[in-house]
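Task card 7
Instruction: Convert sequence to structure tokens.
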Amino acid sequence: MVDGARFCHKCGRPLYEEPAIEALRVEQAPPVDAVEISAAAAAPAAASGDINFHNSVAVRVGLMVAGLGIFVINLAPALLPKPLQAIMTLVLSGGSGFFAVWLYMRRTGQSLSIKNGARLGWITGVFASLILMVLFTTLIVTVGFDQVIEALRHEVQTTMPEFAKDSQALGAALLVAMFVSFLTYCVAASLGGAFGAKFLNRDSDVV
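Output:
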């Protein structure tokens, strides 16, 4: 066999297809819709029906709203009298869940059930609690744990003077307060998310 030959020297059979025939086959191949290619490429990134930490859109929305919510929650109540600060914190925590649902539906064009709305609110509350924990840990590292306890002692000195004298009790109270704060953010944001899904889907059959 001669190198580079197109046909078998014994039987005359083509050893490989002619470029012209191959080009003709390519030209005759049905065109691929560019829209279908784009949709297939975007399919893995599309939001899934379930709201959980595997849903990238829900995670991004929850994290963004949590960051904004922590800023507003820690700023707005400080401008109000103390009796109204706790109420405002609950309202803003619930509002963060509502806003997360609205933002998720706007970004994805998907409706959320009440259950998934509550889940998105819970995710937002979890991220808010984690952000708050990171900020608090940074504060302790920066100024020192003793200084934080001293500030807490000064805060409760007028209302609970005997309790303020016990540093261990103050430290335990600080941990309990962080746990209560976690539950408050998560539960309030879940309720806000559930209400948001119900309210924003009031004209649909999503339940």
